[in-house]
Amino acid sequence: MPRRLEKSGFWVWVTAMIFYPLAAIGKVRPTGAEHVRREGGILLVMNHISHIDPPVDAVFVHKNGRVPRFLAKDSLFRMPVFKYMINGAGSIPVYRSTVNAGDSLVAAREALQNGKVVVIYPEGTITRDPDGWPMRARTGVARLAMDCLEHDVPVLTAARWGTRDILNAYTRKFRPFPRKKISIDVSAPVDLSRFKGREVDNELLREVTDFLMTRVRDQLAALREEPAPDEFYSSRRNPEAKKKSTGTDG
């Protein structure tokens, strides 16, 4: 446990007791952890490749003295016992295609402005790209990023690789042994000044979203030591991959 930890409650510690052993399945090797400042709001934008990403990412943030607040699909908040953990730990439910769809962004903005760390997987689910590269992301991350720009809250991009070798959503195979290396790379605060003062419309939201995810993709390429694809994967162009995916929202 970190020596200097953001104030937390009972359910945060319960979650930590479960997530730390889960994260220990892999050997996490982080770079850029110094960019996760010990106080103040942070929007952490990450890729999503495995069901064990949230425990690994949560422990990474927690070891840096912060309590992560995840944007997670609302169905997780209805699961027995687990709903108390994620709700008590401050996670934010995402209600898609409902009248409450915008509530998650409102709650995330409030958390950021109240000095919390909000973790978002902009793809909304485990990537459907068979090779594990990021797919076309949703624009909610851009709305949060523009709000961060307005209120001087840092936005960090991060890539993670290695968790898919432990648990693969496509093959449904769980391979905890031998322990696999998990790499996490966190960027310095992203310079979003080029977007300041522009009207927040669909064009801008898509531009900001792709800008952030391109950074994540480039960081992932560096971790994998191989070139990234030129375009983001889209299940609309690859319907068969959508049928195979078993991913859930992060």
TrEMBL record:
Residues 227-243 have a biased composition (Basic and acidic residues). Pfam families: Acyltransferase. Residues 42-163 form the Phospholipid/glycerol acyltransferase domain. GO terms for molecular function: 1-acylglycerol-3-phosphate O-acyltransferase activity. Keywords: Acyltransferase, Transferase. InterPro entries: Plipid/glycerol_acylTrfase. Residues 227-250 are annotated as: Disordered. One of its GO terms (biological process) is phosphatidic acid biosynthetic process. GO terms for cellular component: plasma membrane. It comes from the Bacteria. PANTHER family: 1-ACYL-SN-GLYCEROL-3-PHOSPHATE ACYLTRANSFERASE (PTHR10434), POSSIBLE ACYLTRANSFERASE (PTHR10434:SF55). This is 1-acyl-sn-glycerol-3-phosphate acyltransferase. It comes from Actinophytocola oryzae.
